[in-house]
Write a structure and sequence with these properties.
Blueprint lengths: L6 H13 L10 E6 L2 E7 L9 H4 L3 E10 L2 E10 L5 H7 L3 H4 L3 E6 L3 H8 L5 E6 L5 H11 L2 E4 L16
Cofactor: Zn(2+)
Keywords: Hydrolase, Metal-binding, Zinc
Protein name: Deoxycytidylate deaminase
């Protein structure tokens, strides 16, 4: 007899399934809105509706410089970021109602970036559960969530469903 999945695993599995809809070659992200045990919405990262996505038109990369600690030394590092896609968390907020979000939980495959965290902090949700870390914004996002009283936690021992995980590119 198989063991029944706990609710965190169940909803994170659904977030990973949503991420398989993404056409971004750099990162597939999925997000799920849950009120109690009721699924209220799913979303993934991608270009706006009706607009060619990264698989059709290529990534729309911008270059940014960022201070990074490399071997104990602060260095300025050049990074590329795609701006063609709307993040999964942003799509989730666009396609769900504020009343549904009040007191809800968001499950997301990846720790939200700073911009998504700001939006989630004002969305009415009470909890964010994620799987993969996003170290770039981790400290300031954690501070924001503490200041807003939003539970912010990772599923450390979670294993995503087969065929839902891509290699992540920074």
């Amino acid at each position: 007899m198989s063991t029944r999945k706990d609710w965190d695993t169940y909803f994170m599995d659904i977030a990973y399934m949503a991420s398989t809809r993404s056409q971004c070659p750099r990162r597939h992200v999925g997000a799920v809105l849950v009120q109690g045990k009721k699924l209220l919405g799913t979303a993934y990262n991608g270009a706006p509706m009706g607009v060619p996505d990264c698989s059709e038109a290529g990534c729309m990369l911008v270059e940014e410089y960022e201070m990074t600690n490399v071997d104990g030394e602060e260095r300025m590092v050049k990074k590329q970021r795609c701006i063609r896609t709307i993040h999964a968390e942003q799509n989730l907020l666009l396609f769900t109602d504020r009343t549904d979000r009040e007191g809800s939980t968001v499950y997301v495959t990846d720790q939200p970036c700073w911009t998504c965290s700001n939006m989630l902090a004002n969305s009415g949700i009470k909890e964010i559960v994620y799987h993969r870390p996003y170290p770039k914004d981790a400290d300031k996002v954690m501070e924001l969530m503490q200041a807003r009283g939003i539970v912010f936690r990772t599923l450390e021992r979670y294993e995503p469903p087969a065929d839902t995980v891509m290699n992540v590119t920074d």
